[in-house]
Amino acid sequence: MKPILELSEVSKSYDEFKAVDRLSMTIPQGSVFGLLGPNGAGKTSSIRMMIGITVPDSGEVRTFGESFRREHLQRIGYLPEERGLYKRMKIGEVLVFFAQLKGVSQSDAKKRSQYWLERLELTQWTTSKVEELSKGMQQKVQFIAAVLHEPEFMILDEPFSGLDPENAMELKNILLELKKAGKTILFSTHRMDTVEKLCDSICLINQGRGVLQGDLKQIKSSYGRSSIQMEYEGEVDFLTDASLVQSSNNYGNYVELKMQPGVDSQHLLARAMQSAQVNRFELVEPSLEQIFIDTVKSSKVVASNA
Amino acid sequence: MHNTWLIIRREYLERVRSKAFLAFTLLIPLFMYAVVILPSKLMTMKPSGTRHVIVVSDNAELAQRVAKEISEKKEDKDEPKDDDAVAPKYTADVEPSKSDETRSKLNAQIDAGQLDGYLWLPSDIVATRKFKYYTKHSSDFVETEAMRGAVRMALTRQGMAVAGVNEKEVQELLRRVEIDTLRVEKGKVSAGGGLMGFLLPITLMMMIYMTVIIYGVAVMRSVIEEKTSRVVEVLLSSVSAKELMAGKILGVGAVGLTQMMIWATFGAVIGSPIFVAAKSMMKDVHLPLAVVVAFPVFFVLGYLLYSSMYAAVGAMVNSDEEAQQMQWPVLAPLISCAVFASMVVRTPDSPLAMALSMFPLTAPIIMFVRITVATPPAWQIALSVSLLVATIYGMVWLCSRIYRVGILMYGKRPTLPEILKWIKFA
What we know:
The complex is a heterodimer of chains A (306) and B (426). Chain A has 306 residues and is an alpha/beta fold. Chain A has helices at 43-50, 91-101, 106-119, 135-147, 165-180, 192-198, 216-222, 265-275, 288-305, and strands at residues 3-14, 17-28, 32-36, 58-63, 66-67, 76-79, 153-157, 184-189, 201-206, 209-215, 227-234, 245-250, 254-259, 276-284. Chain A has a 6-stranded mixed beta sheet, with helices on both faces. Chain A has a 4-stranded antiparallel beta sheet with strand order 2-1-4-5, covered by helices on one side. In chain A, α2 (91-101) crosses α3 (106-119) and α2 runs parallel beside α4 (135-147). Chain B has 426 residues and is α/β, with parallel strands linked by helices. Chain B is 70% helix and 7% strand. Chain B contains 19 helices and 6 strands. Chain B has a 4-stranded mixed beta sheet, sandwiched between helices. Chain B has a two-stranded antiparallel sheet with strand order 5-6. At the A-B interface, α2 of A face α1 and α10 of B.
């Protein structure tokens, strides 16, 4: 499948600070792609270069198989993390304005905004000013503004933040629909649970560098079933035993851990039962969160060693 | 181009439809009415009340003359006629005794409100030409001027009488002189001097000055609003920073021109009765074609120059409060224009006026003032405008680079070295 977006060796510095450092990634058409990283990892800086808000110091951005051109922006939708709407404009007008900037005619923009406002149950607010709406409703309006021009490629920065569960569900359904219609979606987030359920492939960045990327299923299976989820009551002091456990994430009465290579899971279970009552013990693929934490940790180690 | 047009349209429509625009459009003419018409109405009103003063002198003849000068309106006074109209009427009595009791008695009367003041004329006043005026209204310069004039006139009359000139001849010699100021330009002579010849350029100058500031600040606030509400990030995913800044400046500028056009129409329609009311003031008014053309031209040039600077300031800051401080470097040259304007009106060809009309930051206003007063040589206008246009070009380039980086920067206010870096790397 031809890639919708390619970054090759893209770098961007602000003064001494390297926001993005030789980052490369490829987003195939029709995929849902997760751009993951802790806060300040360079997600927003990378996105800004994808849509020409800033220009990379070096490296190349290619969109739709060509070198990036501003005309491509009409085919890209962007939902920034920091939401922004004109507070004193009416909902209907603000949507038409943003759609027109993306090259949609006024009449089309009106029709489509009516459809979307109805779909997201905002019709009665069409002539209200943005400032009269609740945060959640503004969020939905912002989402409509990002999809009104029916972009082939959507960049959504933390799309679920600030939405209640009901609206988050609705948004998820819309995204799945858009995916089915062949659209490509880039998610930028630090919330692993949503990515895990929605994304086909991911790129994990930390301190401006790509530290892990590829097909999500492959990544998870490459980590093998060396991870254990355990529910327990009592003491789990064996977690600190480096000969058994490589890393762990302890929630108090629930723990996710990764065994050292070659350790027998039954041995570990026996060890656990010595000090705790084990209610559940399951050998699983590691959660994305676990991979994320491990990778970020090890990339930090690499960075500090270097 | 299409994007810039959409930005212009939104900026224009949002503003023109706002209540603030309506209020402003209505209030400014009302304000102008209050400033131009009310004084002329007030001038024709009878001065209310009379004031009572006492002339204290041991020279009875002089005292009588002074009292007469004060209480009688005369055509031979040197002050402008109009000022006579606003000054109150006076009655004056004479007090020959210059004792300390008189003084304390008169002071008591002033305190009691029975007396407005007294003139204390020393015995050697003919030689020293000095006297004291005791009054409650010591800050009423019109009154002190009237008293001074009255004593001077009385001394003159008395001196002439002593020299043997008869009363009728004295009257004739002291009669008021009328002046008619005419403007000579390119061999043509036209009316337009005097007070109005001063007020008209100043009024037009103030209009350019105010609109440049008002709409420059509007651009700045609009930039700040987009920045703080983070709309700018959404906009930049569709339009370039250059298109955005251009659209903003042109859109707000179009609102300014619209407002001026409404006022002009407004003035033309309701204007005629207004000018009848202010006829005595307006009779010397004439607007040469050069001024009519220069007004919008210099407004547009001044607006472009300053609004681009205001846009850059807006991009640098994070709030209106910060902007208040940061806009001073922009405001300073504008304010200096207002300070120098009256000097330029009086001496439009002085080296300083010439320099200010060439310096691009002051040229939009000072060159315009010079054109309204006395058309400067064509080469000067051409040079001034070319310098200005070149500066606008450079300034827009510079400010767009600051703008481009600034609108995406949040948090700490940038230092000067940082801004220089923005310009370099944008």
